[in-house]
From TrEMBL:
EC code: 2.7.11.1
Domain Protein kinase: 186-463
Main location: membrane
Protein name, entry field: non-specific serine/threonine protein kinase
TM region(s), chain numbering: 20-46
UniProt GO cellular component terms: membrane
Amino acid sequence: MSSESLNTELSKKTSFLGLKLWVLIGICVGAFIILILCILSLWVTLRRKSRRTLDKYPLSQIPNVSKDITVDRVGGQNFHDHPESLFLTVHDKSSDRNSEKMLVHLGMSKSSDADNISQCSSIYHQERGCSSQSGEEGSSGTILKQSSLSYGLPMASPLIGLPEISHLGWGHWFTLRDLQLATNRFSSENVLGEGGYGVVYKGRLINGTEVAVKKLLNNMGQAEKEFRVEVEAIGHVRHKNLVRLLGYCIEGVHRMLVYEYVNNGNLEQWLHGAMRQHGALNWEARMKVLLGTAKALAYLHEAIEPKVVHRDIKSSNILIDNEFNSKVSDFGLAKLLDSGESHITTRVMGTFGYVAPEYANTGMLNEKSDIYSFGVLLLESVTGRDPVDYGRPANEVNLVEWLKLMVGNRRAEEVVDPNLEVKPATRSLKRALLVAIRCVDPDSEKRPKMSQVVQMLEADEFPYREDRRNRKSRTASMEIESMSGSADLESKIEPSESHASESNQRVRGSTD
Ligand SMILES: Nc1ncnc2c1ncn2[C@@H]1O[C@H](COP(=O)(O)OP(=O)(O)OP(=O)(O)O)[C@@H](O)[C@H]1O
């Protein structure tokens, strides 16, 4: 066929709307191309979605995962030591029952534990939220919503205004691009600090929320482990004195954690570092920070199941907001402990000077180890000294030993931080020392629980006078008290007996 006759054929009008043949062919080809493009883009979107869902499973924070995941022990170890076990076991779907199971498993309160409920009501209610019944604390995202509503609390959330599609059960799934935008491409100007496992950047999300983004170092599995542990330990919990994990980013080799931004430095900076330029932290602020820290630990140890042992309580991990509320951070070394487990045996990790002696010596870990570290933190705050300071005379290098020496020589009043402009009231100083000495008792069994520490720090009266007597007589009868134990030292801090009985009477009088 010649080109002329082809032209004539193509220019002929068809019966379809009287369009010419070549126009009709053009429309058909165009429509076909558009159809192919639509199918392609639909396929890409679906693939992305399904990859995301798959990626999310291993973190075990996501509802609808297999019940297999409750088998979280491998050879008696926490599954953090074997994160691969999660990858192997999680492959399932959906049943409401399983979701519930996950919530219980991953950190709902021990509502059946009567003992705990009473502590819960005495301590956690004050913070607006006993985990089992109220408020924000101790809940999964789902429970949080219900309880917040039932309390008529405002639902203000740092995540409002972010794409719905990226909401996890408890937080937000960020893309690398989201976080690049938030941190000005991880610019050095935004660096807040660098820890052992990564660099922390300040950022601002598209909804205006200020955040801290921890970009974990890509160090052969360690980042992955730290990442999982943090998500596992604090992703689903809420407490006023715990830094809130808002979400995370997993993309390629990148692992990032996104936290609420805490704007007033950390305790280490206030006691020994850059924040000192604002003046020495006063006594009341120190005690407020310590009390908040004690409450956070009481919550982790006693109000949730499995309990969380932080393992790295130290001043640089206590963030401070502008009202001097403390926010415990850095859960990269945390371990979860089921009820019924008295301890786990694990590699000794932590920071020199804060690690409990029994854990350092045997690797046997439980919450008592955090309590020891808390005692060191309290002594550090009272004295303004580092837990270990080689710049000092030999008998002062180790803070705990020096403190015991000073108290043993009845020189307790001399240990207070010389930088404090206003010295604390004697009663308040002694209370803090007494609590600290109990917490660093070499016998871990004799250390108080964190809920007791909270009560002691909050008490107006000298703490637990009766209890202390009982402890002393019990210990004496067992004839195992050593000079380094706390009971002997406590008597050196205690006010005189006449004063003691006077105040006891006063307390009794007021309760009769
Ligand atoms: N949510 C946050 N808000 C504000 N600053 C933060 C936040 N999280 C961490 N930082 C700061 O970032 C810095 C690094 O913190 P990171 O917890 O990674 O390490 P570190 O505690 O200093 O060291 P280590 O690795 O020994 O624990 C610290 O100065 C810390 O105060």
